[in-house]
Amino acid sequence: MPSNSVEKIKEKLDITEVVGSYIKLQKAGASYKAKCPFHNEKTPSFFVSPGRGTYYCFGCGAKGDIFTFVEELEGLDFLGALRLLADRAGIELEKIDPKARSEKDKLYEIMELASKYFEENLAKNQKAMQYLNQRGFEKETVKLWRLGYAENEWRNLQNHLSVLRVNDNEMLKCGLIKKSEQSKEGFYDVFRGRIMFPIFDQNGRIIAFSGRIFDDVPDAPKYINSPETELFNKSETLYGFDRAKTEIRKKDYSILVEGQMDLIACHQAGFTNTVASSGTAFTEGHLLKLKKLSNKIMFVFDADKAGFLAANKSAVLALDLGMEVKLASLPKGSDPAQLLKDDALNFKACLRNSRHLIDFYLDDLLAQRVEGRKLAKEVGEKVLPYVGKLTSAIEQSHFVSQISKKTSIPEEAIWFDLRKLKYVQTDNLKKEKVTTATEIKKRKNHIERRLLGIILWQREEKSKIIDESKILDRLKEITGKIVSDFPEAEGNREELIFEAENYYEGRENLEMEVEELLNNLKEDILREKFIETMHALDQAEKKKDGKKSKELLNLCQEITKELSELAVKRL
Predict the structure, then answer these.
(1) Nearest CA-CA partner of 553 in 414, 389, 382, 430
(2) Where are the alpha helices (DSSP H) in 481-545?
(3) What is the pLDDT of residues 69-91, one digit of tens each?
(4) Using one digit for the tens of pLDDT, what is the confidence trace for 461-517?
(5) With CB atoms 3.0 to 4.6 Å apart as the test, which of 241, 248, 298, 346 could cross-link to 293 if both were Cys?
(6) 251 is in which domain, residue-wise?
(7) Quick count: other Cβ atoms within 10 Å of Cβ 422?
(8) Full-model pTM
(9) In the chain, how many domains are there?
(10) What CATH number corresponds to the domain at position 259?
């Protein structure tokens, strides 16, 4: 899109107006401040500069302009953010390469025409409307989600779209018709005799359909979904994401259900942070999309074996990605849609009683009344693998302690078995070392920068808010370094002072905030040490060096104990 469109939008829309429509801003000198919408925090560290048209978070480092802000908060690509802001500014976007754009836009238009046709069919089909009503869907819900009906005829949709000058090749590209292998007539409708659920992209445009069988068709599958097309990628599309994304960020967790009916029932009942897969298992792409909005995720699946297995597979994948995973257990034989219709309070109770994945499996094991050596074996096989997947040393320490308390198995024995797991060794260890160590280093550098800024700022102040010499002593105690050991201390001196002054001036609780920064720094250094020790332990075990392995195992336990004590102090 031409840059003048971007500039026109920036001229029309003030950044404080855009950001302020999403989060509450407070005046702070020439800038505005707020609690950062991109990470959880108690004290505002997110600043907006009207003069520069930019934002910056001193807590997580998020920065950019109105386009990056809308992209991140709405879960849009640049083009989606551009369209949203252009509409808000009342600006018509210039077109680049009209031929290329018109082809894809034409596919969107055809999907819209098909959806309207299905909606009209549903309005005329009393039996189908009655069925949806019996399933607990209100008329407004049916309208909001644009549910429809595909008649049980071979070529009705094709004929309808042909009249509207849509050719067969375009219908094929949209996945609405199929080429016949037997009939000379050529093509037939993909969806016949079904309740239709339009699938939307993150911008709310229809890109595919899911059809649930309604008419009596022998040997027909219960659901069929659109094939992958230029518009529709199953592994990246989540049903309901366009409506749930803001609520997921606001509530700081997402709810995952299996099907379209379950999702619509959840949204109708007020659980608007719910999403579902689009005719496929949850993939890493789906979960990464959700993780961008919130690291917390709750799986609510049908209370049967198939539902449990689906939830387990997806939950383990989420755990591998470092997400906080909970499972909600529904009464046997029920699904979210039916339970919400029959007993909404019971459904809410199930969500309230959701448990972390590890607690879920441990409690399930204990409910079977397994004891003694068999219990220890079962814990090792069915619970510890999940503990081994956790990337946080504090979380691992927490669950080791929990398992020990609930089973009476000594913590040392649990740690010993945990170290032997392949999840903590080989490939997974290497992966954790790369990703987690990188993240820790980045955060460490950010904390050190903030502390240096405060020290340099207070050195030049006549009326000091805090004694910088005490910060220096703690910094040296934690890192073994003095200010001159940090290269950025001189190279970015003025910038560091400006940032600290702009962010911390007038703060009454600066001492508490500095203490929190120092504790965070100490935690990150311990976490780095934990990863390095685990790697060394892996090498020692490969060399069958029992003495060295024992020393390193004891060191791992000491580090996790320190991390736990640090966490307790901060509660």
Answers:
(1) 414
(2) 488-491, 493-504, 510-542
(3) 998 887 777 888 888 898 888 88
(4) 877 888 888 888 888 888 887 767 666 666 677 677 767 776 776 666 788 888 888
(5) 248
(6) 238-353
(7) 11
(8) 0.66
(9) 5
(10) 3.40.1360.10
